[in-house]
Amino acid sequence: MVFGASSSSSKGMTSIDKRNDGNNNFVAERNLSALIVDDDLIVRRIHTTLLTKLGVKTQGVENGKKAVDLFQSGDFFDLVIMDMEMPVMDGPEATKQLRAMGIGSMIVGVTSRNLESEKQAFMGAGLNDCYVKPLTVDDMIAILNKLNNN
Amino acid sequence: MDRNNLQRQVAYTRRSLFDQGYLDDQFIQLEDLQDDANPNFVEEIVTLFYSDSSRLIHSIEQALENRPLDFGRLDNYMHQFKGSCSSIGAKKVKSECTQFREYCNAENAEGCTRTFQQVKQELAILRRKLEAYFQLARQAGGAQAG
After folding, report:
1. Distance from A9 to chain B by nearest Cα, in Å?
2. What pLDDT score does A21 carry?
3. Which of A12, A45, A50 lies closest to B146 in CB terms?
4. Which of A12, A43, A133 sits opposite B145 (nearest CB)?
5. N- or C-end of chain A: fewer Cβ atoms within 10 A?
6. According to the model, what pLDDT value does residue A126 have?
7. What number of C-beta contacts closer than 8 Å exist between A and B?
8. Which residues in chain B have Cβ-Cβ distances shorter than 8 Å to A6?
9. HPt domain location, by residue (chain B) (predicted)?
């Protein structure tokens, strides 16, 4: 499966085409799964739809504790999109707990502020990468390509 | 009005929302996610945004009635609302949210109260414009690429 992000910033209503245009493509080498961890319903919906369109089986939870509970119950996800600020258990704490459990999934943090100090602190909890939310199509394809290559 | 004219009007209306600074590129990201499997995705997300907005605006209104003002709580609510604005590309509303948060940080009660009115005003304007745009798009049988 090959997915390419169309350059739509000036074109408006363009779908993500399933074509190989040679640029910024995501090739799904196997069935991938993702967990969206975010207390914001709008962001969960956007990220879930984006990943589903890119062929990734996706589930969403609203705080870090629910994410940790899922992994503890034996569920596994290749990719975790982890929001920083959440009630009950925030992103840094959930990330630390997942890494302490030995979870080697790719964990990508998302924050609503582009503050380098904040992103570095979140990275220190054990993230593979950190972005400003919401993620764009290009962001997601870059993440999935990195996941595929690991 | 025939379909071609309607579609031209949809494209023009859509373009003006960006040119006049009401929306930014994040709205285009939402449009890119709309397809046959999610034919009403943009409107669904915008509807979620309205629902989120109502809740947060109400919380801020109540918090602004307390004395002394809890600037930390006000900032927290507005941080959440600003996040929602970012998610749909509501550029002007987001800008007013940023201004409000600056007044919170400065513990300026009068600034907060005044800017909050601006936030509500910009939100109402955006809502009117988006509702008109979606209605026109429905009449034209789907929004046109700009």
Report:
1. 7
2. 37
3. A12
4. A12
5. C
6. 97
7. 77
8. 32
9. 38-133
Q: For A85-111, write each residue's pLDDT tens digit.
A: 999 999 999 999 999 999 999 999 999
Pick the CATH number of B3-142 from 3.40.190.10, 3.40.50.300, 3.30.750.24, 1.20.120.160: 1.20.120.160
- Which of B38, B42, B87, B94 is the best residue to mutate to test the A interface, defined by the most A CB atoms within 10 Å of its own CB? B87
| Distance of alpha carbon A13 from alpha carbon B64, whole angstroms | 40
Tell me the C-alpha distance between B109 and B70, whole Å: 10
**Residue B2: pLDDT band with limits 50, 70, 90:** confident
pLDDT tens per residue, range B44-92: 999 999 999 999 999 999 999 998 999 999 999 999 999 999 999 999 9
Q: What's the whole-model pTM score? A: 0.86
B146 contacts in chain A (CB < 8 Å):
10-12
Q: Are A39 and A63 in contact (CB under 8 A)?
A: yes
CATH number, domain containing residue A63: 3.40.50.2300
Residue A8 lies in a domain: no
A55: left (phi over 0), alpha (psi -120 to 50) or beta: left
Domain assignment of residue A134, yes or no: yes
Nearest-Cα distance to chain A for B9, in Å, is 15
> How close does chain A come to B57, measured CA to CA in Å?
16
- Note the Cα A68 to chain centre separation in Å: 16
**What is the structure's pLDDT at A27?**
59
Its ipTM equals 0.88
